[in-house]
Structure formats: structure tokens, C-alpha cells
Design a protein that fits this description.
Chain lengths: ~350, ~350, ~350, ~350
């Protein structure tokens, strides 16, 4: 049996922090030794997240008061810009799993351009591995610092990468229409996240300017060896969790939707968390993966000649964040990759 | 002051019928003399739709028992296939406003192909006028039978027609990603409309097979004089009302998003119900039109060179159905077009 | 035909302000001449509330910059504590309709006790009339300042007053279990109003401490001539609008649920906005009044001997606030009481 | 380590069946050998519940085609009336966990009175044990047939039983105002469960006639040795899962809310799934238990002298049905009671 490891959670008072705690509560080989939350330091976890009362009464401490002795790994749910500084200050013995955007870009110039300020820990960036588990397993297993992908890039790349790698679609004609639940925007106070501003409606946001676009593009660019620009248009929906990406692609000459489907099914046949639907399977829905680490991908023939529709859906807080973080943790510490992650979707 | 007209509503027990009654309740020149509802004949309206209790106690009758004497116009909220037969049997003195799909296709072959059976009233089809108010005003004013467009086609065409007419976009590269509330699917019992099957999630439906695609296509084809095929991919969302269309278009060489925006703003400058947003206006949302007859259209520059994003949103039961029906009714009887339709959107 | 009056709206950037503007937009005898919103001064109304774009481009000004010349009446949607000072500073020629709690308590000590600070305009309080329209019509018509009731008190009192007046129930054994949509809490930023904190769940709040309890109690006390304490327990629900009160009452000896029902039906037989349901009518629901100024009340026999259940439902932003404000405005200026308020409920 | 047992699920195509499969998927000592679903016989589980695709491709069979050889226990998610006949026909070697109402009433006359027909398996009723785990552990461990309580009775009794047993409250003055999500009503097609009939609103149902009232009453009657009648008024809310009970009680002379709280905290101090909140804890909410087998109970002092408010919340599909069924299964087969049930609540 695997040995127990000690975990310190940074930024435990956000939604990703909370979902990480939820998942780790039934992970047999982990022990949460430490939780930080600067804005809630001194409180009990159950005051900040009453749904975690059953986990036990844990004290939240400030980052500066954290005692990292005996801790094996830091998992950070801090938002971007904040995470880089805090992680840079951690003791050297710690391995790190970061769920922010701070270490996702190999090129710190791209980071600076899209996030509006210079990277504060460029040296650490060099050691970071992009934590898209299904594509960087070996690097992640060895990583000092795993930078978990954004929720949208995870969903997009799991659907697109096998197709782009096999040159089945035109990488310069990709349109990604995304629909997301509200939890992806975190727990911070903003008028546009108030119930009455979200319920009973839908609207796009970040049109042609969302920061997950360059993250998708840089991974596609790695495959084709040239710059890639995609359309990425997210919409905010009245639901808590879940992300649905409808991706409109132009197929290479002679390629059919069946070819695309076959490529996805072959690529993911042995993957425990990604399922490529066969023809005729029930239409994918965010409900089919809610609360779980699973991702569904599917392909449909378009009526427009030469076009196909690729769909991808996952739970933004699990496979899109905390679940993938645990998946990477398992790799980094030699546990079976599915450990603690086989909770089935919650429906209804 | 205009004279009062008498209206008979056919199919009053569906959601479109109910919304028609809601709108007509404050219309100063109309009097509902008759309501039919075969499955609820013998009941009071307030038993079927308690929210309409305040309109007064009206008896629902079967179609076959309806007395059309003294009635000026029949407005039908029956579903497709049912409507054509019932309307064909109406007394000849009646003018008709139909909200079903039955008389929308000039070419009954297209109808037969997409709706799966031969048209039962091809003769009547010849007299029908497509009721997209902003584009067929004169014809509608004279029409014996106005066939109100589908909710999706209304939204799509209001956004696309000015652009296609001015050759600003490539009509063969149009992708329409649509998101709709549940009321568009009516009140009939189906598992996929149960609360628990819709709430807290999203999924596409009718992928590459939705019947509103050919309706959009035939109107675009009229403009360009050749067959048009568009991608049309609707998604079902957890909200009652509202439709949001995100349309991805390729611009003609040399054309910019500003040109598209200018074309829409010019076209709709004088329209009472369609507003083309200026640059920098708040991002459109279904919430901005809920419960009203308004439609918002907007244009955004894409990051992908040569591409733009056209958005269109309306309330599927109002501008997408009953509201547009009243707008057409007003034209047909010489009332001011906005009569009874200036109720502002309900938000939150 | 009535003359047009000029209205100034104070606090136009809150939800009650917005709903007031929505209603007045189709009121034939009113003209909004002025809108104040301190936190949004300098903006257009359409930037703050895009759903009101169709009303026309109105500039929001600061309270201190408001020009009240030519204005007949000020209608205030400011929150409590803020309203009293601003209203006290208004020019003397203005009549006032206030939707806050500031002038609802004849006894300023009760105000001080429950709202935690001394009243800032006790002199003005003396001139205020409690704006529960159905019970204070004559006073309101003459009022300089109408203090519109809270949303919960409106619903509670419309259900209870006829029963208490006729001594049909024990005023000392009243339990009011209330369920409300989120808009009642306004547009201010608070974590507990975030979508993810409200959706897919319910919880009580203000248990045994909600400020609408003393407002209900003081009106009941007026009837019975002694102090009254009621149980009032509100719950926050995942919906935008609507309030449902389930009131558990003990009947006086020999009284039956039928007697209660008869008393309500008799009292409201001629009221345009309050409907007491007859036995066997469809069960009331918030959906039946959404977006409208109507209130439904109903009585059911309990299985517990001697007990009955009184239900009352309304839209908190309309009959519970802005709609009742317009109803009072109509009385104050001699318009037909229903003017501008006959919009039917929006369902679904 | 415990031995693996084989389970047959009857009625796998309903929501309780699905949630049972979800929970058992991570139970280490169970193996689902058989799933029946008469209306979907011949289909794969993943066609009926796509969210369970990841469990593996299981065939659904008709009840009459089920092969019970080698199966240790039947768990039934069939609705009442149907369950009794099917369970009566099972082979004698099977132990049974039933989630319907069919075997909850020791007195078959009460069943007949409330469910409208004679019990079809009165003999089997005699062998049944009421499966309220926290109160009947020893009987359940030995039971041939465990009849799991209804969702509302579970929540009500967990809050009330310690108070009634200690004579702290008046058993003849209990008012239970309940709010429930829609999944409690199952997956069957009914108009009042359609999304548009439930979303954005609330309404009561089964007023003074809901079948869970007698179930609550018979357990309270057992304690006090005389007939008990309670007020039980459920409301349907726009959420998938969760139940919140606000119970208004009259305390015995000299008893305070603190006494009630202390009684609950003492009773549940060692219970793994029921937590009695201490004074000052965050207000309970359905969100705090969603998807989990936990139940929260809490007590508040009322402003009305002599009265207190007892609250209880759980997930109707888990602690209110499938979770409690697994808890009972664990007892019946000698597994640790919490096995497979420590999944933490899903929030947001």
C-alpha cells in the first residue's frame, strides 16, 4: 500500500480550493495538513464552506503563518497573479500543483501580454510542466511544479489535439463556442455574478479577448509548428458547474466526420477519464459529467459540406481544475492515476 | 380611434397561445371572442393557465364547436402539422395569423422533406405571406394568411439579412450557434423537458437536423439567388424564455466588422423593435429582451482575420412568436404597428 | 383625459428603481423627467440597465445635482437609512412616494430599535401615510408622503387583515413561513447573493430577526389594540422574483376554513389587484403573478383540528414594491387606480 | 476484508435507482450483478442514464427475465404499489432493501387508507423493518426486508424524535413546512414537473393530504403512545435535489431552545451522518448536504414566547433514499456503516 503524503492547500477559501478538499477527503493516500486563506485566516473551514463541515474542524491560516515542515506538496487554488509570488516564496522541498494561470505559458511574454503585467517568477516558470494529464504524463510525473490547464483549454484540447496531430482538420479555421457555469468565475464579488444577473438568461463575455484563447493556441501551435489563432467565444449560463464546447471545424480534403470520430475513439480508448462517444450515443451534456473528473468528446457531421462539429464537455471545477490537479498529484507521487477520482457524476 | 376587432384564438392551451392572450389583454383594439383548445375543451382558461385568471373567466371550446360568426381574425398557436388542417377548415371570411411552421415554406416540397409528410393544404400555402415583419410589411398588411416565422429564423434573419443583402459576408460560410430556453419546445410532455433533465446543464439537440435551418436558408437563398446551406446548432438551456444566437461569419474581402455594424445600425435605425447596438454598448443578453417584443443585434470583430461575430437575441415567445404575431395583426388591420407591444423587458 | 405629471426617480440604479421605470414606460399620464443614481451619476440608464435601452437614452444624475423644478412627485427606490435624509432634503412642493422602510413606522422608536439608529427625519415621519393601498386609500390620496410597505408585509397583511379584523383567528398564534426570490435583497454586492450561493438550494435567513416582522406586527396590533408578536421566517430561493407566504393560523372556536375563505373572498371581491381563490381553484404559485401587480390569497383546511393554512403570493418587485408605488401614485394624482398596471403575469 | 456481495437492482431506470448505482460504483464490497427496468428492458444503462456510462455497459432486463441466482440482496427503486408485488415474487433466499412506501406501515390499514388500495403483500409487511437507520439499527441488521423511510419522514424524524422522546415539545402542535427539489417526484412524465412549470417559482402541493404525513405521525405516535396529527405542508422548488424542513414547535413549559439544541447535539454526537449544529453555526442550507448522505439539524429560538424552530435538511435522493438504503445494506451485511458513503457534499 502506498504511503500517506501530506498536503498543504493554498487558497482554500475559493471554489477550486473547496472542490480540492472535497476530492481529497476520500483519497486514501493523502492527508491535508495545512490550509491557507489570507482573507479568512483565523476562521474554521466550516465557517467559510459549511458543506465541508463533515471533513472536520480545520483552521485556516494566513500564507505567511503557514508551517510547511513535514508537508510534501503544496496545491494552490489562488487566482492568477497572486499565485506566482506565493509559490515562489515556498520552501524548496515542496513539490507544487498550481491551478492558476501563472505557470501555464512557457513564454512569459505571452503571459505578460495577456495578463497585463510582467511575470513575477520567470525562473520558476522554466521548471513548470503544463499539466494536461493525458498529453504530458511523463513530464508531470517528474515535475517540481505542475501548472494545471484552464478549464476551457482542457476541454478544447482534449477534443482538438488528436485531430490536429493527425492533420484531419484545418487548424486555421477553428471556432470554439463555449458555454460555462458560473463557478468558473470564482467566489469573488462582482455584480455580473449575482444570482439575478445570471439566472434565466445567457450572454457572451470576453468576446475575442478571453485569456484562455492563447492557452489553447500555444498548444495547437506546438503541434503544427506555426502560429495559430482560434475563435474562442465563451458564454455565461445559469448553472453552477459544467462547460460545454461546441467546436466548428473544417476538415481536410477527403476527411469525413467518421474519420474524426475514429481518431478520438482510438486516442482515448484506454484513457480512464476521457470518453469519445461512438456514433449514435446519447448527445453529450454537461449533466453527464457533473461533479466528476470525466470528459466526454463527440463528433458530428455538419450539413455544410466539408465541416464537422466537435463537442467536448467536462466539469470546470473537477477535470477543469481540482480533479485534474489530483490526477497530476497521483502521477507525481506514484499513485494509481485514478485514485480518489472515481466518484461518478451527480445527476440529477 | 381605431375600431375594435374580434379575435379567435386556436390552440389557447399552449405556451404561445398563453403569451398571445397575455399580450392581447392590454391591446386597446382587440377583443378575444373565442378560445379553442381541443385537449382542454370544457375547462376555464384559468384552470389551464392560472396566471391568466385576471383576464377573466373564459371557456375553452373544441375546434369543431367554435362559432366563428362575428370573428374577424383567427390566431393559431397550434403545433405544426395540426395547424394546416384546422386552418384549412376555417370559414372564408376569416383572416389568419398562424404561428406554426405550416405555412412558412413557399415550396411545399421543402416542407414535406423536413416535416416528414405531404402538406395537407397546399392551396392555402399559396395565399400565405411569410410574416417576418421587418422585411415583408406590405405583403403582410394585405395578407389573408400570415405565417409567422420560427423563433430561431426570426433571430437569425434579423441579424444576417442586411449583411447578405449588401454582400458583406460569405453566405456559404455561416455558422449559427443557438442557445434557447425551454419554452420554445412547448408544453407537451417529454422526458427531456422535465426540470431535472434541463436544470443545471446544457446540451445541443437537433444537431445538423433542426427544422429551422431550411427556413433560414430559404430566406437567404432568396437574396442571393442560389441554394444556401448554413450550420445551425441549437442548445437547450436551463431558462424559461430567451434565445441567443452567436453567428460566426466570414467577411467579404476588404470588409470590416465596423462595416457590418454600420449596415445593421442603418437598416434598423427606424425600426421600433430591432435595435442594432453601437460599438461599446453593453454586451447583449437574453435578459435584456425577456418578455418583450424587442430584438437586439450586435457585431464584434473576431481575432481570426477576416471573421466577425454577429449576435442576435430575442424572447422566443414574443418577438419569436406571439409578439410578432400581434405585430402582424396590427399591420393587417391598420393599427399602429407597436400597439399593445410596448411592454418593456422584465428584469430581473 | 388626465393631465400628464412629471416624475423624478431617486435611486434609479437599483432593482426597484428599474422596475418602476419599466412600469411607468407604459403609463399614459406620467413623464419621467429626472433620474438620480449617486453611484452611477454621469452614465446613461442603458449602461446600468441595458434592458431599459428601449425607454430612451436618459442621463443619471447625482442627487445633489437634481433639478426638481417642474417635477410633481419624487419616487424613491433608495435603501432604508439613505432614503430618509435624501427625502428630507427635497423641495417642499414635491409629493413623495417612498419604497424604503424609512417612513413605515409611525413610532420612530420601533424604527430605531429594529434598524439600529435614530430616525433622521422624525418630523417627516409624522406626515407619512402607510401605503398599503387596499387599506389606506383615502389617506394615501391625500398624502404628502406615501411610505410603501415592505414586500413581505404586503403579502402577509393582505392575507391576514380580514381574518384578524373579523376575529376569525388567534392573533397570538400566527406562523409565517416565507419564501422569496433573490431580487428582494437588491443589487448590492454580497457573497450570499452570488449565483452559486443561491442556485440549486434553499436556506432560511434572518431567523427571528427579520425587520419585516415588526412591520407586520404593528398593523395587526392596530386592529386588536394590543401588542402582537408573530413568527416570521423567510427563506431565500433560487428564483429572481416572487414571494410565497405559507401562514399557519389557529382559528377561533367554531370557525372553519370555509369561514376564513369567505371572509377573504368578500373583502377582495371588488379589488382589482387582490384575488381570493375559491375552493378548488388551482393551487397558488408565484408563477401566477410574476411581473404583475396582482396578489393571490387562499385558505386551506389543516388536518390538525382547529388550524388553517393561509397562503399569499405576489411579485416582490411589483405589488411588493414598484407596482404598489404606482398604485399609490395613481391615487395621489387622481388617476384610475389600475392605470399602467394591467400588465398580465409573465409565464413561463 | 469483507467479502464481496452481489446486488440486484430492481427499477434501475428511476432517479433513486440511478443514485443507488452511483453510490455503489465506489462501494468496495458490492458488485451489481443485475439491473431490472421493465420499461427500458433490452437497453444499455448508458442509454437511459448517460451519466452512468463510466460505470460500464450494463444491460437492463425485465423483472420477469431476471436471474437471481448468486444474488445476495435485491434493492428496489420501484414506485409504491408496484414494488410490493415484485418484491413478493422474489426468490426466498434474497434479502431486500426497498426504497418505496410499500412496507413502511406496520399497519396495512393505514397503508390502504392513504395509498388508496389494499396491500398486495400483507404477509411480507410483517417481516419488514422500518429502515430509519439511526433509530432501528439492531432490527435492520437482522432484517429480511428493510423498508427505507420516505425522504420527508427521514428529515422530520431525525429532527423531532429526540425532542419528543424527551418530552421537550408538544407533539400535538407541530407544523412542518417543507421545501423540496424536483427529483423527489421521480422521472415520470407529468406536466407539473416540466422545466417551465417549476423554474422561477414555488408552490405548495399535497396540502393537508401528502402521504408522508402519516409516516411521520406513526413514528411519533409510537413514542407517545397515542395518536398524533401533524401539519405537513410541502412546497416544490426549482432545484434538482435537496429538502429543507422548517418545523415550528411549542416547547413544554420551562423548556428553552437551548434545551432542544442540547438534546439534538447529545443524541447525534456519535452519529456519522447526522450533525446537530451548535449555536452560532452557519445557517443550514440544502447546499451543505447536496449529493451526500449527511443530514443537518438545528434549533432556533422563536420570538413568539414558548416557541422554537427546528430545521432539518438532507439530500432527498441520498440520505432521503439511496444513501440510507446503502447505510442499511451495510448494517445487514456487517460492513462498516459508512462504507461507500463518505462522499462529501457537492458545492457549488
Amino acid at each position: 500500500m502506498a504511503e500517506q503524503i501530506n498536503i498543504g492547500i493554498i487558497g482554500a477559501s475559493g471554489y477550486t480550493g473547496a472542490d480540492l478538499i472535497r476530492l481529497l477527503a476520500t483519497h486514501p493516500y493523502t492527508n491535508i495538513k495545512l490550509m491557507t486563506a489570507n482573507s479568512h485566516a483565523g476562521k474554521k473551514l466550516s465557517q467559510v464552506f459549511p458543506h465541508l463541515s463533515f471533513v472536520g474542524d480545520v483552521d485556516l491560516v494566513a500564507n505567511e503563518d503557514a508551517n510547511w515542515e513535514g508537508v510534501d506538496v503544496a496545491m494552490s487554488g489562488l487566482p492568477h497573479a497572486t499565485a506566482q509570488q506565493v509559490i515562489d516564496d515556498l520552501p524548496g522541498h515542496l513539490r507544487v500543483v498550481d491551478m492558476s494561470a501563472d505557470f501555464r505559458f512557457e513564454d512569459v511574454k505571452t503571459y505578460a501580454q495577456w495578463y497585463g503585467h510582467d511575470h513575477q517568477a520567470p525562473g520558476l516558470q522554466k521548471k513548470a510542466v503544463y499539466g494536461l494529464t493525458e498529453y504530458y504524463r511523463e513530464e508531470i510525473a517528474q515535475a517540481q511544479l505542475a501548472a494545471c490547464p484552464g478549464c476551457y483549454p482542457t476541454a478544447a484540447l482534449l477534443g482538438l489535439l488528436p485531430l490536429v496531430r493527425a492533420s484531419l482538420i484545418d487548424v486555421h479555421d477553428i471556432i470554439i463556442d463555449a458555454k460555462s457555469g458560473v463557478s468558473g468565475a470564482g467566489r469573488g464579488l462582482k455584480e455580473d455574478k449575482l444570482f439575478s444577473e445570471v439566472a434565466e438568461g445567457i450572454h457572451p463575455y470576453g468576446i475575442a479577448s478571453h485569456r484562455h484563447a492563447p492557452e489553447i493556441e500555444k498548444e495547437l501551435a506546438k503541434v503544427v509548428g506555426q502560429e495559430v489563432i482560434v475563435n474562442f467565444t465563451p458564454h455565461l449560463m445559469p448553472m453552477n458547474r459544467g462547460e460545454f464546447l461546441t467546436m466548428y471545424v473544417r476538415m481536410t480534403d477527403g476527411v469525413s466526420a467518421s474519420d474524426l470520430r475514429a481518431a478520438l475513439r482510438e486516442r482515448y480508448a484506454e484513457e480512464p477519464f476521457v470518453m469519445a462517444l461512438e456514433e449514435g450515443a446519447p448527445t453529450p451534456a454537461t449533466r453527464h459529467v457533473r461533479g466528476s473528473n470525466f470528459c466526454l468528446v463527440a463528433v458530428y457531421q455538419d450539413r455544410v459540406p466539408g465541416r464537422a462539429i466537435v463537442m467536448s464537455t467536462l466539469d470546470n471545477l473537477v477535470k477543469g481544475s481540482s480533479g485534474q490537479a489530483v490526477q497530476n498529484l497521483n502521477l507525481m507521487f506514484g499513485f494509481e492515476e485514478t485514485t480518489g477520482l472515481m466518484q461518478q457524476p451527480l445527476f440529477p
